[in-house]
Amino acid sequence: MDARSLEESIRKDIENAANDQALEEARIKYLGRRGLVTSLLKNIKDAPPAERPKLGATSNRLKKLAESLIEEKLTVLRAAQPASRFYTPPHDATLPAHDGLTGHRHVLSKVFGEIKDIFVGMGYTLASGPQVELEYYNFQALNFPDEHPSRDEQDTFYITDDMLLRTHTSPVQVRYMEEHKPPLKIIAAGRVFRNESIDPSHAAEFHQVEGLYVDTDVALADLKKDVEIFIQQLFGSKTQVRFRPSFFPFTEPSAEVDMTCFVCRGSGCSVCGKTGWIEIMGSGMVHPNVFRAVGYDPDIYSGFAFGMGVDRVAMIKYGIDDIRLFLGNDLRFLSQF
Ligand code: DAH
Question: Exposed end of the chain (fewer CB within 10 Å): N or C?
Answer without folding.
Answer: N
